[in-house]
Amino acid sequence: MWGKFALASLIDFDDVQRSQACPHLKPNKILPAKSEVLMPIQPLSSYLLPICLLIGSNVFMTTAWYWHLRYKEVPLISVIFISWGLAFVEYCLAVPANRFGSAVFSPAQLKTIQEVITLLVFAIFSVLYLKNPLTWGQAFGFLLIATGAFFVFQVPR
Known about the structure:
The chain is an all-alpha fold. Residues about 1-20 and about 35-40 have low confidence and may be disordered. It has helices at about 1-10, 20, 50-65, 75-100, 105-130, 135-150. It is built from six helices and no strands. The protein has two domains: about 1-35, no CATH class; about 50-150.
């Protein structure tokens, strides 16, 4: 189904019948111009999409920064190139997250969301991958940062 809509968005349908382009739609109606063809359902809300992209980008960035701490025998130059590859994927997620997110969040809110996600991803990565338990002091420090995030969202855009 999505393939038909993706294809439909690439074709100008000014003179094409729905029944010819997309047989599952009602026949005898002219499709809108290319710029007006919309996806039938948006998979994520405009608020949720940037957050999901930021979570993905932070997973890649945290991995890029810290994966090698378990592999100290890997030459540093190899670590740098592998981390650059991971960071490239991170940028491919972070840049669209900020572009899409700027439609619904202020820049300060986007940065705050990113920082809170970074702390959460790092805490999980540290415990699960690095086998480094989270201390009460670290948890309290993260909580203070999250409290600051609360106040960023209290100020109107």
